[in-house]
Amino acid sequence: MSTKRHILIADDDMNVIAGLSFLLQDEGYEVSCVTTAQAALEKVKVQSFDCALLDMNFAKDTTSGQEGIALITELRQLDSLLPIVMMTGWATIELAVDAMRSGAQDFVQKPWDNERLLHTLQTHITLAQSQGLNERLKQQNQLLQQAAHPQLRSDIVACSQPMQQLLTQLEQLAQSDMSILLTGDNGTGKSMLAAYVHRCSARAEQPFVTANMGAIVENLFESEMFGHVRGAFTDAKAARAGRFEMARHGTLFLDEIANIPLSQQAKLLSVLEERKFEAVGSSQSQVADVRVISATNGDLPAQIQAGTFRQDLYYRLNTVELRVPSLRERVEDITPLTEHFLRQFAAKYNKPVPQLSEAAQVALRHYDWPGNIRELRHVLERALFVCRAAQITPDDLAITAGDGVVANVDDPNLTLDEIEQAVLRQRLRHHQGNASETARSLGLSRSGYYRRLAKFGLAEHE
């Protein structure tokens, strides 16, 4: 596994190529050599380099430097961050200016001075690394920023007393840097509330970065969270910033925190305690200047008891622990949420905003919403398309008020998950929550039965 800096040399003089190769290899560089401008372009298309050292003139022309200018322009289109140093034996001020305007970083005249050439290469490689890291940070942060998250309380639908109380607590906590653990069922809006805390905090102008701990492959955990340097492992062809570095001075939201593999929990704990981390393959420590908010729908105390979650990490994460209420605990919010989502989807699909019939409002308020706000969104998005009038009826919602059973499993608009959930609810009710009988009637093993209960957030008393 090589961590050498890789230099591309393009020159039509084999003596120049040999001299440069010997010099650079003795200094620990890896070298690739070509003799034409076209070959240089082909190399850059399929391989990354730390710097390109290019002749200004090739076989077509020996003095004007136009081949070199054209090569710089084409290389810039392939790699905007590649440092380019030009070389020629026919140097003029005008040619040097043209090369720099075209995108070269520097200009060296032949015959070269070894020390000056080495210093020039090292300087531009170091600058490119810094610029490249900043550019990657900017791009990754743009991808990870949650632009749709509300910035003001008025942007959050929260008329119910439990939600008003929760928002007040979060606004107070936002003024500190304390770690917050948000618990509650799936689909209750924990990520939205984490972003709201960030927007209310002194770190509001800094990045808000999300890491879904359940989606990170175990053997890539350190690279994803702490980053890696080029060459740190087989596929590390370029340096990468981890989530802690991307969130510097801002907020890091660790979603699905209960899913961190036990083998990686100690590493996360160490960073949270020491406030320092090292990228994979680097010995240089970086300060972890982030505010950490985490969330889970799991039972962390039970996992601690079972030995699958570290107690010391739990205490480090939950300086303050707040539970986000389920939708069935905030019934007053259902109608305003429904109106909010219908307006949102109508604008998205360029359709008129339908009205809710009184019966539909009753059905929505009496449904138990196992999928919480996420399920409500899906129900309303579907209803917007299936309703045949300017008003949404209970049939359009495909739910039954009072028991939370999907009304008609033959509805062609239902997904496979919705049909499976409906059948599971019906069998649970028919067998009065008897796990063995319900599993047997569905042809499921006990483990398969409980996996489906967990998948849909159902209880055996459904």
From TrEMBL:
<keyword id="KW-0805">Transcription regulation</keyword>
<feature type="domain" description="Response regulatory">
    <location>
        <begin position="6"/>
        <end position="125"/>
    </location>
</feature>
<dbReference type="InterPro" id="IPR001789">
    <property type="entry name" value="Sig_transdc_resp-reg_receiver"/>
</dbReference>
<dbReference type="InterPro" id="IPR002197">
    <property type="entry name" value="HTH_Fis"/>
</dbReference>
<dbReference type="InterPro" id="IPR058031">
    <property type="entry name" value="AAA_lid_NorR"/>
</dbReference>
<protein>
    <submittedName>
        <fullName>Sigma-54-dependent Fis family transcriptional regulator</fullName>
    </submittedName>
</protein>
<dbReference type="InterPro" id="IPR003593">
    <property type="entry name" value="AAA+_ATPase"/>
</dbReference>
<feature type="modified residue" description="4-aspartylphosphate">
    <location>
        <position position="55"/>
    </location>
</feature>
<dbReference type="Pfam" id="PF02954">
    <property type="entry name" value="HTH_8"/>
</dbReference>
<dbReference type="InterPro" id="IPR002078">
    <property type="entry name" value="Sigma_54_int"/>
</dbReference>
<dbReference type="InterPro" id="IPR025944">
    <property type="entry name" value="Sigma_54_int_dom_CS"/>
</dbReference>
<feature type="domain" description="Sigma-54 factor interaction">
    <location>
        <begin position="156"/>
        <end position="385"/>
    </location>
</feature>
<keyword id="KW-0067">ATP-binding</keyword>
<keyword id="KW-0804">Transcription</keyword>
<keyword id="KW-0597">Phosphoprotein</keyword>
<dbReference type="InterPro" id="IPR011006">
    <property type="entry name" value="CheY-like_superfamily"/>
</dbReference>
<keyword id="KW-0547">Nucleotide-binding</keyword>
<dbReference type="Pfam" id="PF00158">
    <property type="entry name" value="Sigma54_activat"/>
</dbReference>
<dbReference type="InterPro" id="IPR009057">
    <property type="entry name" value="Homeodomain-like_sf"/>
</dbReference>
<dbReference type="Pfam" id="PF25601">
    <property type="entry name" value="AAA_lid_14"/>
</dbReference>
<dbReference type="Pfam" id="PF00072">
    <property type="entry name" value="Response_reg"/>
</dbReference>
<dbReference type="InterPro" id="IPR027417">
    <property type="entry name" value="P-loop_NTPase"/>
</dbReference>
